[in-house]
Amino acid sequence: MTATEARPGETTRAAPVLNFEDVVLGFDGVTALNGVTFQVDPGELFAVIGPNGAGKTSIFNVLSGVYRPQRGTVRFGDEDLIGRRPHTIARLGIARTFQNIELFSNLTVLDNLMLGRHLHHPYGVLAALGWIGKARRNELANREAVEEIVDFLELAQWRRLPVGLLPYGVQKRVELGRALASQPKLLLLDEPVAGMNLEETEDMARFILDIRDELGLPMVMVEHDMGLVMDLADRIMVIDFGRPIRTGTPKEVATDPDVVRAYLGEEHRVVERS
Ligand SMILES: Nc1ncnc2c1ncn2[C@@H]1O[C@H](COP(=O)(O)OP(=O)(O)OP(=O)(O)O)[C@@H](O)[C@H]1O
């Protein structure tokens, strides 16, 4: 039986894109992740929330090959990610944005986006061997793809400006574009609206939804902005002290007594927006 076939009486469900199972990660006496399990379905926007030090960044670092867990399995499609190096994982199709912007500030928007493509579609050696025609065709295809991203993220007015001169919210958008430029199959968003004002946050929220709804790209998002998470995510995993407390829809999570107690404190309720 294949992953998408159902047993009699079951509804058909596509295989998850990502299977993160029973992952344990520790550093000399500190347990960062203590049996974390979750799946991300095709086209799903999956959010991870939790207090400072709960283990959110550690999940991203395991996913992108920066940390190697002591226990557990991480499967991306048919690939086992544990033990793979970050550049291999990037080539398999996992792209990431960072809490702190990691762009070349003196290069233009277009050049930063081109770098996002070249990292995963190199052809320098081929060009050196005389494959000039093929290299040129690749270059044209890369430029076309980058222009599509410029349109998609509404970056046209800044495309030839150095990134360092742009407002913070636009820089974060360029970083998102650079991640998209590698044509990922899964996107990891690390606090995509951190430090943004309301207008920038609303713009970013719109682009994240467009990525899910128009590109159908599954995403894992770590974010402190509870309102944004409740508004955007299909499902949310709440973690505390490296352990999942509850995984469910925004509504299920918002009304879970353990979540309210452990994450927000007895006196607070998770903001529900519908
Ligand atoms: N390289 C490391 N060496 C030692 N301890 C680490 C390391 N990375 C993470 N930790 C510890 O693991 C725990 C989880 O950290 P992590 O950064 O994953 O939390 P977080 O939920 O992302 O926090 P924040 O919201 O503050 O970014 C913390 O106790 C942290 O101090």
UniProtKB/TrEMBL annotation:
Keyword Ribonucleoprotein: no
Limits of the ABC transporter domain: 18-266
Entry keyword ATP-binding: yes
Taxonomic superkingdom: Bacteria
Gene Ontology cellular-component annotations: plasma membrane
Keyword vocabulary terms for this entry: ATP-binding, Nucleotide-binding, Transport
GO MF, any single term: ATP binding
UniProt cross-references to CDD domains, sorted A to Z: ABC_Mj1267_LivG_branched
PANTHER family: ABC TRANSPORTER ATP-BINDING PROTEIN (PTHR45772:SF1), CONSERVED COMPONENT OF ABC TRANSPORTER FOR NATURAL AMINO ACIDS-RELATED (PTHR45772)
Name this protein carries in UniProt: ABC transporter ATP-binding protein
